[in-house]
Amino acid sequence: MKIVFAGETHSGRARSDNEDAIGWSPERGLYLVADGMGGHASGEVASGIVRDTLLADSGSVDLETSVCNAHRAIVSAAGCDSALNGMGSTLVAVRITGAVARVVWVGDSRAYLWRKGSLRRVTRDHSFIELLRERDGITEAELRNHPNRNIVTQTLGLGDPKPSAVNVGLRRRDVLLLCSDGLNDELTDDEIAGVLREERSPETAASRLIACALDHGGRDNVSVVVISYDGEDSGTLQRIGQWLKGKRSG
């Protein structure tokens, strides 16, 4: 399995602090983006707790359990320091095992799959806007300009979040993009696709995505992790596994 990746984070043009956190453990196939909230220092603390918890857990528990551990760690830290009350974080994380990517998320940080010249959103935001999309079928333009577009319905550290998860069978030359909403608030999916179409390396793609978000206003912190997969197709590995199973039982 060959994976090449790159990640960047930027405070944006409107803020001096950066409440996003990115992280990875490539030897364990783990990559993540967390977007903290709660104001200045506490948002940064929350996203840092998420990052550190997932990296510490990687390899010892499944990804959903690790995400729930991060939620409890934020709650515990806030309970020990009144200055941190109300802090929370969104998260999107992926663990790649063989040719399968397990994507887990809470909130509106996103994962996209770039495959053969086409971009597909893997995650579905836990947000007020996504509820409107499902209920009323309003257009993408209406969603992007809605006054409540940044209201999330699930957050680590607050309430009782339920992580969502999906498995993605990978194919050779697939690219996974993880990002905070500072990217997709500034760029449409078509604009994101345009960058991935032109930039073949994760490093140049990550840098240009950040630059484009800043050029479009950079009103929020913006973070991306770009992961390029060049291993065997998931279908090929599945067929090999079935063949080996048949040989053992024959």
Characterization of the model:
- The protein is an alpha+beta fold and 250 residues long.
- 38% of the residues lie in helices and 27% in strands.
- It is built from eight helices and ten strands.
- The protein has helices at 40-57, 63-80, 128-136, 140-144, 181-184, 189-198, 202-215, 234-249, and strands spanning 3-10, 20-25, 30-37, 88-97, 100-106, 110-115, 118-121, 164-169, 175-179, 222-229.
- The longest helix has 18 residues, at 40-57.
- 44% of the residues are buried.
Detail the topology: elements first, then pairings:
Blueprint: E1 3-10, E2 20-25, E3 30-37, H1 40-57, H2 63-80, E4 88-97, E5 100-106, E6 110-115, E7 118-121, H3 128-136, H4 140-144, E8 164-169, E9 175-179, H5 181-184, H6 189-198, H7 202-215, E10 222-229, H8 234-249
Antiparallel strand pairs: 1-10, 2-3, 3-4, 4-5, 5-8, 6-7, 6-9, 9-10
Helix pairs in contact: 1-2
The low-confidence parts are: none
Strand content: 25-35%
One letter per element, helices H and strands E, the order comes to EEEHHEEEEHHEEHHHEH
Strand sequence of the main sheet, in spatial order?
1-10-9-6-7
Q: What is the overall silhouette?
A: globular
**Biggest sheet architecture:** 5 strands, antiparallel
Helix content: 25-40%
Ends distance = 29 Å
The average pLDDT value, as a whole number, equals: 91
Q: What is the C-alpha radius of gyration, as a whole number of Å?
A: 18 Å
Secondary structure class reads alpha+beta
The total count of strands amounts to 10
